[in-house]
Amino acid sequence: MIDARTVIQFMSRKGYRPVPLRTLARQMHAADSDKQRQLQAVVGELEADGIVSRRKKGLALAHPRSLVVGTIDVKRRGFAFVRPAGTEGPDLYVGPRSLGGAMDGDLVLAEKVKRRRGRMMLEAGKVVRVLERCRKRLVGTLKKWRRRSYVVPDGMDFAAEIGLSDTTPRGAEPGDKVVIELSPRPSRGLLGRIIEVLGDASDPSIDVPMVVAQFALRTDFPQDVLREVKKLPRGVKATDIKGRRDLRRELVVTIDPESAQDFDDAISVKRTRSGWKLGVHIADVSHYVRPGSAVWQEAVERTTSIYLPTRTIPMLPEKLSNHLCSLRPDEDRLTLSVLMDLDQEGNLKNFRIERSVIRSSKRLTYKEALRVITGKTADFGRPIVKLLKEGARLAKLRSEFRMRRGALELELPEVQLEYDDAGHVAARFGEDRSRPFIHRAHAAPDARALTDLFFFARTLGISSDAHDARRALQHILQKVEGTPLSHAVNLVVLKSMKHAEYLPSSEGHYALAADHYCHFTSPIRRFPDLVVHSVLKQFDLEKGRYKTFDWSAHLDSYARRSSEMEQVAEDAEREVIKVKLLRFLQNRVGEVMHGVVVGVAEFGAFVELEEVPVDGLISARSLGGRPHYDERGHTLTDPRGKRRLRLGDRIRVVIDSIDFERRELDLKWML
Predict the structure, then answer these.
(1) How far is CA 465 from CA 449, 450, 454, 512, in A?
(2) What is the C-alpha separation between 338 and 280, in angstroms, rounded?
(3) Which helix (DSSP H) or strand (DSSP E) does residue 350 occupy?
(4) What are 330-363's pLDDT values in tens digits?
(5) Which residues contact 482 (CB under 8 A, 6 or more apart)?
(6) Which H or E run contains 212?
């Protein structure tokens, strides 16, 4: 597709010379008539906007040196910065009145202009066109002032009003939550049209639909997907088992959260004279979902299941996720088994990955398994009790092994560093054979972030004489374990870390101290796992019989999409929880509560309440004057130096106000 973005970026290339439209079409590989019509229409629009001009020799940007293409970052106070795309040029400041209808995250075309500040002339910018909307749809509250109707969008850090292009708001009343589709080419300000009315903003039943619409989550499966799934068998057929290792007589159990409906993996553990035999048996989703199929393509779009408080949005249709692939007790299920031999110290001696069939003996919850391991119950029969206790012993040895290798363990309830031996083994297997995997990567923290972290630890009287940064982090975390300083130090360690992501190459996992790692045990709910399974089938487990697929053409986009959607899923899950908690607090304005400082910035301090796990902001202005912000020390001190907020401090706060639309909880510090 040819759009304004591609045309502007093409004309911005170094060495571009003005050419006629026909030559431009040839240079941009717009050979067919549809693309030529698109190009002609886009060039016409850009000419009308004064962005492209016709010169003697042809078409070119009107002011190439003064135009910047980049992503706009809108700040809380309404001003913004345009970060140039594909260059290392400086960010361009854009004032609140020069946004041109752009919203945070949009790809924009901005024009450099001179702006006077006192006697100085500064370079600033104004948005002349929105090239690509970051979000095409928004959720907000319908408002009315006199005869004018407009929508205030939810969750924005800055004040925004969206005018309506349709004067008839589809039966919506002021105070309703609505879904609005933004105009792709705003002329002045923000403009959109209402496409769905969710209901009264004060009704808690719309909270989940509101977040689903806000994040544009895919809820319904397309008809071609449903038709494809309908053809699948109801259960495992005898022909499916042929050629697989039969483990149906092995004692195998699943252990999952109490609310889980899809059981991806199961374990078997046996004590031997030389150590242990550990089996991790993962649902063989790749047997039913083949690359290029309709179900596969839908999984590419979703990449993950999303778990909201009252609703699950699965990656795969229910027939697969909750039935055919789910490792339910007393039912034959096709699996990929990672079979490992470990010695008395828990060291991995050898492994193999095989196609198998299992029959789960028991479905256990984490709570039930913990009760068995701690000796509080033995109601599940002696064999299962033995399996769980042997598994716990082995897990302890493997954890100690990882810690010796340099893995990090954070004492934060919201942070779980997911590690499974099967993922490590599969990644090693793939790396040794140069297989095209999607890897789980976690880069080492920046040197400056580590320097600031160690400085903060020293301000608390904590230091380490370890020469290796990873060992020093381990020592610091061990020193504060179980102390009042633990929360603050763990938070700073977390903030210093980079985000884990999916990559088509093995870059290692810093926090897990693993050279190779991939997600492997959850193919029902996570697309990268399904990709790894399918690659193993094509090249190793079913070589010559599994569908051949060109992974090199897709792996990069699969990895990028998986990382993006993982973040979307986390944000959506947090948003629903925050909405519910803010509703709960609406009638408690003025109450005093305890909280912990979980973030410090120049504009204020974020505090997580103890009674209700939600963050609120103590504004820097409420401390009086201009407080001093110490970025390295994570402190905010009032101008007189008498009051100081530091990361990890436990303080008393009063609930000052709640802005439900902006998802903001304002707090005041009680001395």
Answers:
(1) 18, 14, 11, 22
(2) 5
(3) strand 348-359
(4) 999 999 999 999 999 999 999 999 999 999 999 9
(5) none
(6) helix 207-214
Fold match, 137-202 / 589-670: yes
Alpha-carbon distance of 499 to 398, in angstroms, equals: 24
Q: Which residues of the chain are under the pLDDT cut of 70?
A: 86-89, 115-122, 157-159, 167-170, 184-189, 412-419
pLDDT of residue 309: 87
CATH 2.160.20.10 for domain 137-202, yes or no, is no
Per residue, the 3-state secondary structure of 132-151, as one string, reads ECCCCEEEEEEEEECCEEEE
Q: What is the pTM of this model?
A: 0.86
**Residue 44 near residue 37 (C-beta atoms within 8 A):** no
Which of 397, 391, 437, 409 is closest to 513 using CA atoms? 409
Please count the other Cβ atoms lying within 10 Å of the Cβ belonging to residue 207: 21
Residue 199's φ and ψ, nearest 5 degrees, are 135, -175
In 3-state terms, what secondary structure has residue 67?
Answer: strand
pLDDT tens digit sequence for 161-211: 888 877 656 678 899 999 998 876 655 567 888 999 999 999 999 999 999
As beta bridge partners, residue 600 has: 605
Counting every residue written for the chain, the total comes to 671
CATH of 65-132, one of 2.40.50.690, 3.40.50.980, 2.102.10.10, 3.30.450.20: 2.40.50.690
| Calpha distance 612→594 (Å, rounded) | 10
Q: Looking at the DSSP assignment, which residues form a beta bridge with residue 190? A: 162
Parse the chain into domains and list their residue ranges: 4-62, 65-132, 137-202, 223-439+511-571, 444-497, 589-670
- Rounded Cα gap, residues 553 and 543, in angstroms: 20
Quick one: tokens of 321? 């996720």
pLDDT, residue 170, reads 67
Q: Which amino acid is at 140?
A: G
pLDDT score for 50? 78
Give the residue carrying structure tokens 């002696």: 382
The secondary structure of 302-345 as a DSSP string is H-B-EEETTEEE-SS-HIIIIIISS--TTSEEEEEEEEEEEETT
Q: How confident is the model at residue 249, as a pLDDT?
A: 95
Residues 86, 87, 90, 94, CA torsion sign: negative
Residues 6+ apart with CB under 8 A from 173: 142
Give the separation between CA 284 and CA 90, rounded to whole angstroms: 50
CATH level 3 topology of 589-670: OB fold (Dihydrolipoamide Acetyltransferase, E2P) (2.40.50)
Q: Interior CA angle at 531 toward 526 and 534, to 5°?
A: 130
Helix (H) or strand (E) holding 239: helix 238-241
pLDDT of residue 267: 95
Q: Which residues contact 408 (CB under 8 A, 6 or more apart)?
A: 417, 470, 473, 474, 477, 493, 511, 513
Distances 344 to 272, 273, 311, 485 between C-alpha atoms, Å: 9, 8, 44, 37
Write a three-state SS string for 31-50. CCHHHHHHHHHHHHHHHHCC
Phi-psi region of 83 (alpha: psi -120 to 50; beta: other; left: phi over 0): beta
What pLDDT score was predicted for residue 284? 98
Name the architecture of domain 4-62. Orthogonal Bundle (1.10)
Handedness of CA 20, 25, 26, 27 (dihedral sign): positive
